[in-house]
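Usage

Read records sequentially. Each one opens with the input sequence:
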Amino acid sequence: MNTSLLRKDFRLEPASCYVDARCPRYKVVVPAERDLSPLLPYLNAVAKVLYYDPEEPALVFRLEGWKVAVRKDNVQIGPVPDMEIGRRAKEKVEAFLEKVWSERDSLTPRYEPHTLPPPLEIYKLLPRTNCGRCGELTCMAFAVKLASLEAELSDCAPLYEDPRFKEAAQKLEALLS
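and closes with the structure output:
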């Protein structure tokens, strides 16, 4: 009996959010070997989750810069520029999923739905100094990155250096956890 979560085969599909032919982007689509629904609450407990709906069931998380969508019958990973990067992404995501599944007995699953707040809600709690120390030109750009888990809250130095922002930092930490 096959104990793998995912099948060996996969395909690349155009990522619908990219339309620039000079910079093609694809998503990797990997069929599941079996129903992945039981895995989702464990992923919800340990991954950098952007979205989890137990009713659908679907979960979206970030891993090494890729956005990974897990549904009961497949996994989608993107964006990737070509087949070779797609293959590497599939291998890394598959290893992560297998690790979580193999360690499930020592994990506490989270069954609650999960969504991250919109960028504007995050922005309102940031210092709004546009200092650029986080690596972004504006606090709004930083808020967008935080909302998609492409940045870390700790990158905002004023939030932790200035005592005036202590309460906002605590609210943001709770909001983004």
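Summary fields computed downstream for this record:
- The chain has two domains: 11-106, 116-176.
- The two ends are 38 Å apart (CA to CA).
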